[in-house]
Amino acid sequence: MGKIAVFEDKQIRRIFHNGEWYFSVIDIVSVLTGSANARRYWFELKRNLIENEGFTKLYEKIVQLKLEASDGKMRETDTANTEIIFRIIQSIPSPKAEPFKRWLAKVGYERIQEIEDPEIATQRTRTIYKEKGYSD
Questions:
Q1: What is the pLDDT of residues 84-98, one digit of tens each?
Q2: Any residues with CB less than 8 A from the CB of 69 and at least 6 apart, and which?
Q3: Which pTM was predicted?
Q4: How far apart are CA 83 and CA 60, in angstroms?
């Protein structure tokens, strides 16, 4: 069951695997770097993460899954779940990744606030519930 997600009018291939979504790392890298050769960029980034940032344990969570390639054939591609994708995004030194990094920081900060004061989480949930059009 594969689907396409869209981010800034760019397609991100994804597949539902073991009860969660896995996203194409190459597609994410391509969108957030604008690199002409996203595969090469990912290869270099992966090497840097392993050598300099202790990414080895996280790298073990990257899974090769078959996704439809541009030629229509199913090819094994590096994929990762949302948690690992967020970690990869944090390591991409690109201005295009900065808005996403700021959003991650904001969400992290909000989560810490909610842990310290559960009432904030309750209020935030009610607001989202109402924004979606549900009644009280």
A1: 998 888 888 888 888
A2: 75, 77
A3: 0.73
A4: 13
CA distance 27 to 85: 11
Ranges of each domain in the chain: 2-93, 95-136
C-alpha to C-alpha distance for 24 and 11, rounded to whole angstroms = 10
Find, among 31, 27, 10, 33, the residue nearest to 93 by Cα. 33
Which two structure tokens, joined as six digits, stand for 56?
């080895």
SS (H, E, C) the chain: CEEEEEECCEEEEEEEECCEEEEEHHHHHHHHHCCCCHHHHHHHHHHHHHHHHCCHHHHCCCEEEEEECCCCCEEEEEEEEHHHHHHHHHCCCCHHHHHHHHHHHHHHHHHHHHHHCHHHHHHHHHHHHHHCCCCC
Contacts of 23 (CB under 8 A, 6+ apart): 5, 12, 13, 14, 79, 80, 81, 82, 85
pLDDT band at 43, cuts 50/70/90? very high
pLDDT for 106-135, tens place per residue? 888 888 998 899 898 888 888 888 888 887
